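Researcher: Please translate sequence to structure tokens.
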Amino acid sequence: MGSVVPAILGEISDTLEWRKSRLSRDGNECVEMCRPAVGLVAFRDSKAPGAGALVITGGQGRALMALIRDGAFDPPARR
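Model: Translation complete:
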């Protein structure tokens, strides 16, 4: 069985139930997520919902969220 690689979909249905953090403001400055199919999770930019979505497995999504929580993508501190 081959490995699952992330996909970027240019067209993903707006009928899906997209969610964003309760902490997000009305400024559309966040990432939205949904579950397009069993075992998959999709992420898109709330400012540009028609620009496509990153679709990955649930396990990859959990790993990504752990990296984000741990600060792996935070910019370096300014001196």
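Researcher: Any highlights?
Model: The mean pLDDT is 81.
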